[in-house]
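@channel sequence for tomorrow's demo:
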Amino acid sequence: MSQKLQTPQFKNIWNEELIYLFDLFERYGYEIRIAGGAVRDLLMGFEPHDIDLATTATPDQMKEIFEKENIRMLHTNGEKHGTVTVRLNDKENYEITTLRIDVLTDGRHAEVQFTEDWKLDANRRDLTINSIFLDRDGSIIDFFAGYDDIKHHRIKFVGEPATRIQEDYLRILRYFRFYSRICLDENSHCIQSIEAIKENASGLKGIAGERIWVEFRKIVCSRFADSLMKKIIDTNVHKFIGLPDVCDLKEFSRIYKIYENNLKNIPLPITMVCSLLHSAKEFELLHRRLKFSNEEKRIAEFLFAYRDKYKRIVDQENDKKLEDRLKPFRFILVDNVKDAKGFEKFTELVKYVDRLGYVEHLRDWNIPLFPISGDVLQDLKIPKGPIYSKILQNLKESWKNEFDMNTSEETVQKLKEKMNEFI
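structure tokens (generated this afternoon):
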């Protein structure tokens, strides 16, 4: 006798659109069930953000139904893999995928064959916790004891770990990502799974960097991130996703430990990744592999420009007054005042050096503008050339350190008088 789910979260998903879809497929003689991540979330007591569905109807049969019923279908690029997406009442989208088996895999992509066998479809999924289906009455269809693994907080591959991994090597990273979500202990890994990961880690070489980053970015900011990162290094996975052979695990762990009890404040994934790297050069090599966004790249460049200097500054704060401690951080904001994303980058830096509290002191600070420009130098008949930027830079440092970033006329006059020192 199958178990049934009757939780408030399960009852809440049954809106008009989902009820209509189930009625529709049943009217045309096809089975349809809730599948994948939505089932996992419901069995964990969470209400899912998206509800994916599985059916015995083929894509052509689904299209025939939806055309006959005047139901809007969205992008069709998933059809060759069995997925049709519909929009109901102009408010809810649902992805509906035909049951399938993988007939040919290369470790990245699969050629599929449609089936009406629910167990065969479950067998092709990555982890037991993602291989469960739900009927509309709450019946749990669970061929591989995934619900038992959820209840006991275990992460296991469906069937033989090496076989599942070799079908799609990205499943290595998915193992670590879901471990952080499901497990209660940072060291309760399935030995067989870890051995299979280590033996097959080199397969990640053939996986596109963008796909790797989608998974890896979730791991570095997750629960148990430091122990998971250690396991990723122990299994040599890091070498095949673009990270250097020797990662700075101590630095990564230092930052993670600051935020492990309040993960909502943990730095962005790109910041956590930078903590694993020793230099901007290592970042450039990793960027070639993982294809970070332009904004992520700019954050990384900002961190490498400031992080080592400001770690030293923080180490030397000792018993200084708050204003004296804030002053060098004000300098950063002054130097980046024209950067529209400057404060976001600044926030990542202060998180990195464990000074997040400074954000509240500086968030509403009216950042002063350096009052001397190239026009002033021109008015003073200083010849144009490389000397311009040198003079301006020296004057700006003097303005920050000696004149406390004051912008009064008196300060401007003193700065003009000081120019001769730099000519």
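heads up for whoever presents: The chain has a mean pLDDT of 93.
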